[in-house]
Amino acid sequence: MAQQREVFMEISPADFFYRNRDLAGFTNPSRAVYATIRELLENSLDACELHRIPPEIYIRLSQESSNDKAETYRIRIMDNGSGVPPEHIPSAFGQILYGSKYTLKQVRGTFGLGGKMAVLYGQITTHSSVHIISSTGTSRIYEFELMIDIQKNRPIIMKKDVKSNKDKWHGTIIEFTFEGDYTKAMAKIIEYMKQTAMVAPYANLTFIDPKGRLYRYTRITDKLPPPPDEILPHPYGVDVETIQRIINVTKCRDMLCFMTTHFHRVGKNTAEKFLEYAQLDGKTDPKRLTPDDSVALAQAMRNFPDFLPPDASCLSPIGRELLEAGIRKELNPDFIIVEQRKPAAYSGYPFIVEVGVAFGGEVPSKTGIALYRFANRIPLLYDESSDVAWKVANTKVNWRHYKVTPDMPIALIVHICSTKVPYKTVGKEFIADRPEVENEILRGVRNVSRRLRLFLSRKISIERERQRLNVFSRYLPKIAKFATELAEKEEEPDIKPLLGSIDRFRSFSENEEE
Amino acid sequence: MAQQREVFMEISPADFFYRNRDLAGFTNPSRAVYATIRELLENSLDACELHRIPPEIYIRLSQESSNDKAETYRIRIMDNGSGVPPEHIPSAFGQILYGSKYTLKQVRGTFGLGGKMAVLYGQITTHSSVHIISSTGTSRIYEFELMIDIQKNRPIIMKKDVKSNKDKWHGTIIEFTFEGDYTKAMAKIIEYMKQTAMVAPYANLTFIDPKGRLYRYTRITDKLPPPPDEILPHPYGVDVETIQRIINVTKCRDMLCFMTTHFHRVGKNTAEKFLEYAQLDGKTDPKRLTPDDSVALAQAMRNFPDFLPPDASCLSPIGRELLEAGIRKELNPDFIIVEQRKPAAYSGYPFIVEVGVAFGGEVPSKTGIALYRFANRIPLLYDESSDVAWKVANTKVNWRHYKVTPDMPIALIVHICSTKVPYKTVGKEFIADRPEVENEILRGVRNVSRRLRLFLSRKISIERERQRLNVFSRYLPKIAKFATELAEKEEEPDIKPLLGSIDRFRSFSENEEE
Known about the structure:
The structure is a homodimer of 514-residue chains. With 514 residues, chain A is an alpha+beta fold. Chain A is built from 13 helices and 16 strands. Chain A has helices at 13-19, 29-49, 89-94, 114-126, 182-199, 240-249, 255-262, 268-277, 291-303, 320-331, 388-396, 435-486, 496-506, and strands spanning 9-10, 56-66, 71-79, 98-99, 130-136, 140-149, 154-164, 170-179, 204-208, 214-217, 335-340, 344-346, 349-359, 370-375, 378-380, 410-418. In chain A, a hairpin with a 3-residue loop joins β5 and β6. In chain A, α12 (435-486) packs antiparallel against α13 (496-506). The N and C termini of chain A lie far apart (79 Å). Chains A and B meet through β1, α1, β4, α4 and α6 of A and β1, α1, β4, α4 and α6 of B. β4 (98-99) of chain A pairs antiparallel with β1 of chain B, so a sheet runs across the interface.
């Protein structure tokens, strides 16, 4: 047998994502610019919202150098968020799989990867360090210059500096260079910002692009949605590993305490009923469970029918009012209706779907429906046709039933918020078609579409009436004149009151009121 | 400002993929059965082929327990591959991001994740250990019982045993339990095996399913495709990090040596021309390059127009003959044509596309074309519509031009082999639409479709002729009889020779010969 030497080795997580950066969306220079801006902006928004600070974010992308070989850019992003505690700065920016996003809480970031991937990509394309300035609002501002040791997955601190912070400024500034292609990415980046403004109408965003053009998205409200809470795991989503981990750290001495302390929405009553169902004594010490007991416990948790559904109070949907205001601001439609669905859950993770439909105004009228997808307030712009919302809009809804024709300027807006959005890729491009999620979207789309149909029917009948009256208004003066002549009178009758009823219809282009 | 405490923490790669197992294809009990069988089978095939051993693989899936809550299965897979050296067994099965797949070589495994994810999934659903028996053909057989410490990403050795190996057996046996849903996954699993047999017609596969049914895919040839070679990185795919890593380990004292020693297809001539292009002195010591020099070097490498394209001799396509035999065996078509494209490359990675089209026989005749996708000899069954081959078949080819109608039983087979298949997910479900890859597929499909058109035209005209002759054969005896009567003769003329020409057409259903 022709032996070939096989080399076994361990690689670090940083090395893994360095080798497979396509997985995180850093596929080519154009996608890299997009992903860099997007990941940093999302982190900044998270850092503001979690602390209820109306975001004030400034992004500047400037061309560092350009030759026939490659284009290098420098990005600077500044936010007024909560800042990063100094002891965490090196790892938070220079170590993959390190961060504050590994909790059950609705945040934009899911994998704790994006921002670091941007820094890593900058390093591997320009071999320069990242510059970070941050303060949590204490009397000090911390400055770091970092690089990543990719093979070891550890930050290398090149320089560190502490300055006084008289104004108690809080926030984070990040600056580094990377190779990209802004020209190709521009349209997507502007669209991304526009859509971000749509779902975060309480944020001020300023973007200065490499050509010096200024894009400014101004807040229209100071009202932030309520911040999401961190929750305990729901029994439906728990496996043996989770149970073992909890057993390792629990202070409970019996199963009743164990169930009520460590799981979401399990009160004394539910816990007792469940333990009976699982054939476990409430007085058993959790530390004494055998591996087989843990397996049985995990299975029982997934199958017990009487757990309360996950509580969505930990979620922070945009809300009808804010979402409508955001869409109005960016699309200025003739008609808009938004519905927030009731909370639902998949495998123990709560989620809420918000659906909107808009007509006319600046809604692009292309063939088909313009789909705007959002997840935890992130606009999703790539791989549309793999997304559950696309599936619903294009294969589950009979639009003709709602009087929608392909040439109409219709926008469909779908927002999903969850403690765990079921993304199918690390790059957060699209959402899996979990049946529960698909169902909620479908119901939401049907409801708003029924309201759209009412609007369209009325619009169509009014359009007909208006055409009829238009004809009328053209001939009425002539008839009046003719009738006057026939009657051999001098003065024509006043036709203005009659024409007035036509004007009533002219003004119809506003939103229907409920 | 309402402060919320943020908890920063580091998680291990095992923990990351445990938390995000959807990314690796372990989404639900049904997908888990599929992914488990698939990942283990692919590892076994790799272990055989890399050492030119005709694979002999045995898989048994048996139901361990079943209640109203969940179904537990035990999997046992045995191969005659090269075996795993004993010192690597614990980490190879119990540590994420550890393995032998992190080289530039065409293998099924890409991420070094799948097999371990299967073991990890077994552990978190049934909390039991994995049992491994392996020998590299030495005088010893090693047995391990392992679990994974997910939080630390380290294997835990529960038991270890050494036995003598008189027969010099080599191979690996893996056995563990996991929670799954075979009933739902069955159709996909059988389809997966069938398609694997199609592209690996030199393998014997035996599968015994939980109902005791035996599926056997027998080899039709002992001829294995030539094994893939490991290659050096091609200059087009190199970034600053790679250059730095090479500088750290190189023994070269000048750039000319550096270029010719560490990169794919760079000879002395090319190296000299390149160094002139990059404005670097051939005598410079690589260890003295500044960071800026490395950046300039990386950019120059990507832009120098005269590097030789990657050499595809490191690749191992299936080959026209083997692929055709495989398809014939599984689909038994009336017509088949296979084309192997010339080697091409994207970002420095060589790849070869093989395209086949088959008509009739057991090709499923549903609406549209049955697409069979393969990458490095792995059948891809999920998320078809996100794949580049689907895009080509459904949006780039005008099938009517090739006389193909939607009701026809047509199968399109696309195989891509590469040192790095551009998957878009860790679960290896579909391939990105890299322009170079898309183009090669499109050209391949057009070429085989032209041949298909010839076949279909001939088939259509023969069909017409046959119908004409059918009518003829129905009336000829009557005409003969009538003519005989008219001529007042007793004996009818012999019409058999005339009807013979009809039979000639009856036999047309075989493949056209070139």
